[in-house]
Design brief:
This protein has a two-stranded antiparallel sheet with strand order 1-2. The chain has helices at residues 3-13, 19-26, 34-42, 56-63, 70-84, 88-93, 96-114, 122-133, 140-149, 158-165, and strands spanning 53-54, 117-118. With 169 residues, it is mainly alpha-helical. The chain folds into two domains: 3-48 and 154-165, no CATH class; 53-149, no CATH class. It has ten helices and two strands; from the N terminus they run H-H-H-E-H-H-H-H-E-H-H-H.
């Protein structure tokens, strides 16, 4: 392992690598076995998952000039208000699954407006594509950018190792 690679991995994990780790990692670098390198870096570390709260400011920042920008936030707020004001007859016509989906989206919109939407939760990560599909002009790339903003735990992945070692960090 080159000194630059070692420095990149140390920056990724936030600590100095041990001699045993350097030796073990050296065996995996020629084959680019980055998942194996990640497993070595994560060995013995307690996994700490932390909430990753976002609000509409984060979304606006991610959307930036490549999307509908502030319009998207206004649209989301309008949709949340419309969902609140649905007549009981509309809800009665929905299946239980549709009502459940509407409730999840409604909660997500409100949490986003309050800055307390935790995109680290699997349920939220699962509905993000649905949320984005409801907003004209947003794409899957916007969802990916939002999810990449969040470091939901302190374990490294093979993809993060690859970026670090190949200069994309």
């Amino acid at each position: 392992m080159s000194p630059q690679q070692q420095t990149a991995l140390e920056a990724l994990v936030g600590r100095a690598l041990t001699g045993a780790e350097v030796t073990a990692i050296d065996g995996h670098l020629p084959a680019r076995a980055y998942d194996a390198v990640a497993a070595i870096l994560n060995a013995g570390r307690k996994r700490t998952v932390q909430p990753t709260y976002i609000g509409d400011g984060t979304v606006s920042d991610v959307i930036g000039a490549s999307g509908p920008g502030p319009y998207a936030m206004l649209w989301m707020r309008r949709q949340a208000l419309l969902a609140e004001s649905l007549p009981d007859t509309t809800l009665a016509a929905m299946t239980t699954q549709q009502q459940y989906g509407m409730a999840l989206l409604w909660q997500a919109w409100h949490r986003l407006s309050a800055g307390t939407l935790d995109i680290g939760l699997p349920s939220v990560r699962a509905i993000l594509p649905t949320m984005v599909s409801k907003i004209p002009g947003l794409t899957e790339a916007h969802v990916t950018a939002l999810l990449e903003r969040a470091r939901v735990d302190d374990h490294v992945t093979g993809a993060q190792v690859a970026r670090a070692l190949e200069g994309g960090m």
